Amino acid sequence: MLSFDTDQIDSLKRRIHEIQERINRAAEKAERDPSSVRLVTVSKTISVERIRMAIEAGAEIFGENYVQEAQNKFSALSALSATWHFIGHLQRNKARYVVRIFDLIHSVDSTRLADELNRQASKINKIQSILIQVNLAGEKTKSGISPEDTEMLVRHVSTLPYLSLQGLMTMPPYFNAPEKVRPYFRQLRMLRDRIMDMSIENIGMSELSMGMTGDFETAVAEGATLVRVGTAIFGARA
Q: Which of 17, 113, 120, 189 lies at a 20 to 30 A Cα distance from 1?
């Protein structure tokens, strides 16, 4: 293993600890168990060495957006203890690669993508955990299925033997004010709860992936179980 820059590792440890403390305080304020919320360290565009340092500093889950970039990182870091989540837009022609790398895919948004993931997972005899990405605001620049069509996709996934649906994900509109995002987080939680009440077979709805650097505490207050934080840990990207 390469020797690390101790100052850089200590800096990452402080940042990760600070984010975790903020998550814990937000959970406690909402009368939730802090252990029910996990930090996904967003590592897109971050070098292998800095991710290696982040692992040394205590980060456990890493979120990647780009398949080829993630392949290179996974290959370089596969000997280390880390969990990998795919959080970006996923094209069907990349499905065969993501099922080989990622423990959880956050961004399933169509029956065609679900079918292809199921087909590729079957080839390696893997049960692939997924979340359904919901586009709550109907933004054309963002992926995700509409709230109205989410039940249809959930029921379709329930028939696919190599997929395990764990919950929902969203990327709400950007506001430089967390309280403006709260209604979207609440809407996703309510949608999740409605689906849970349907008791659809072979479906789990325990996870809510929502909240990023600027609003994750609000997301935790509204029920997030996975918060995706990058900038507050690694700093602004080039």
A: 17
